[in-house]
Design a protein that fits this description.
The chain is of the alpha+beta class. The chain has two domains: 12-115, PAS domain (Beta-Lactamase, 2-Layer Sandwich); 124-188, Orthogonal Bundle (Arc Repressor Mutant, subunit A), CATH 1.10.10.10. The chain is 46% helix and 17% strand. It is built from eight helices and five strands. It has helices at 2-10, 30-38, 54-70, 124-131, 135-145, 150-157, 161-175, 180-188, and strands at 15-20, 25-28, 78-83, 89-97, 108-115. Strand 3 and strand 4 (89-97) form a beta hairpin. The longest helix is centred in the N-terminal third of the chain and has 17 residues, at 54-70. The radius of gyration is 23 Å and the shape is elongated. The protein starts with a helix and ends with a helix.
Length: 189
């Protein structure tokens, strides 16, 4: 349970941007301002010298333009992956928002921007030496890190599920890990 709480604590809050239908940014959360500062500063456009990165403005503009030509569609959304200056990636989603839950015509377009978790690589050779894994245990560790279930591992390695469980039990003992998730967590640190 402590591991889950740590993951939740490390998860970054999404940034929220709210535009009115007249191309004005009317609200930006502190998290959104932080994200905007990290997104490419060289490609900026918008009305009246706005400091909105083009990718964000394009999301807003795409929804706003479709609303003006095809009428209000409060179910329409749009999204984009945005790469920042420092190699970080962000997922942005735009969707129309009304003044209240019953409004069929939206008054604003909200854009939610979240940092995409960076995949970390595991140095399996180093882990094998550090924890003195056998060749077969190292194969299993790789498959556990890939998220395979015991049945899938047994089929891939042509061994029984019982043998897989025994190997995982030995791996957890060598690593002083309580679970498969903890095996992965230890290796990606």
């Amino acid at each position: 349970m402590d591991d889950i709480e740590e993951i939740i604590k490390k998860r970054s809050a999404p940034g929220i941007l709210l535009f009115d239908m007249a191309d004005r940014l009317v609200f930006a959360s502190e998290e959104a301002l932080d994200v905007l500062a990290e997104i490419r500063k060289t490609k900026i456009k918008g009305k009246r010298g706005s400091l909105i990165p083009s990718e964000i403005y394009d999301l807003y503009n795409g929804l706003n333009r479709s609303k003006k030509t095809s009428g209000a569609d409060v179910t329409k959304t749009d999204s984009a992956i945005i790469c920042g200056d420092r190699g970080l990636s962000y997922y942005a989603r735009a969707f129309p928002v009304g003044l209240d839950g019953k409004v069929k015509k939206s008054s604003y377009i909200m854009i939610v921007v979240e940092k995409i978790g960076q995949k970390r690589t595991v140095d399996f050779e180093k882990a094998g030496k550090q924890y003195q894994f056998t060749k077969r245990e190292l194969e299993l560790v790789k498959l556990v890190c890939d998220g395979l279930a015991n049945r899938d591992i047994s089929e891939k390695l042509f061994i029984s599920e019982h043998t897989v469980k025994d190997h995982i039990k030995n791996i957890k003992k060598k690593m002083n890990a309580a679970s498969r998730n903890e095996i992965v967590a230890i290796l990606i640190r």
